[in-house]
Specification:
This protein is of the alpha/beta class. It has a ten-stranded mixed beta sheet, sandwiched between helices.
Length: about 230
């Protein structure tokens, strides 16, 4: 379980209270712009230390671990691909930051690329790829790292509707049944309905839930009802 134990997060004058636990499967984090959705992910990833409470994984406090040492992979909107590295090297960073890849590592990179539909793309550079293909490379890097917690910070929001739907389907196919705890921030309620089994609502300085997705949209809390219009 990923647990926020009486956590208070602060950025400037902004405060977000989080006291909840998230289990395996795909959980969407939704709420108004500026409510603190990405702030919640930053605390899990280690980019923001709580001013109160603890973020825990499997009962252990993550506070003493640097971002790279946490059991967490993160997928951003800009994909964080290095333009001077090949597709295979960008994915290989998920295994070895120094890119000293063993034959077994290279085989794992190939399998990850195959899972996301990019067989034979190892030697390509990111600039030769479409936006959707770059998203797939970033997802392959998450797969090859094989960490138990995966954070998705609106990674597909820049894609067109058809490509975004394709990527959501791919995430569900490769992560949905992998036993991982996947937390996805999205500004689009449709993403949550398509992908997530449960929802955390962030609004008015609090994160609430998680609640089963269908139940949230059938009877949304006031803050979410205002957001949905």
């Amino acid at each position: 379980m990923l647990t926020f134990d009486d956590v208070m997060l602060a950025q400037g004058d902004f405060r977000l209270s989080v006291d909840l636990s998230i289990g395996p499967g795909i959980t969407a984090v939704i709420g108004p712009s500026g409510a603190g959705k990405s702030t919640l992910l930053a605390a899990v990833a280690g980019f923001l230390a709580p001013m109160q409470g603890a973020v825990q994984w499997a009962g252990g406090d993550l506070g003493g671990f640097a971002p790279g040492a946490r059991p967490v992979s993160m997928l951003f909107q800009d994909h964080n691909l290095f333009p001077h590295l090949t597709v295979g090297q960008n994915v290989g960073l998920g295994l070895q930051p120094n890119l000293r890849l063993s034959p077994a590592d290279k085989a794992a990179v190939g399998r990850a690329l195959s899972q996301v539909g990019l067989d034979g793309f190892d030697a390509r550079l990111p600039k030769t790829l479409s936006g959707g293909q770059q998203s797939r490379v970033a997802l392959a890097r998450v797969l090859v790292a094989d960490r138990p917690v995966v954070l998705l910070d609106e990674p597909f929001s820049a894609l067109g509707p058809a490509m975004k739907a394709e990527m959501l389907d791919l995430v569900r196919a490769v992560l949905g049944d992998a036993g991982k705890t996947v937390v996805m921030v999205t500004h689009d309620p449709g993403d949550a309905k398509v992908l997530a089994s449960q929802v955390v609502v962030v609004a008015d300085g609090r994160a609430e839930g998680p609640t089963e997705t269908q139940a949230v949209f059938a009877n949304p809390p006031d803050a979410l009802r205002d957001y949905l219009g």
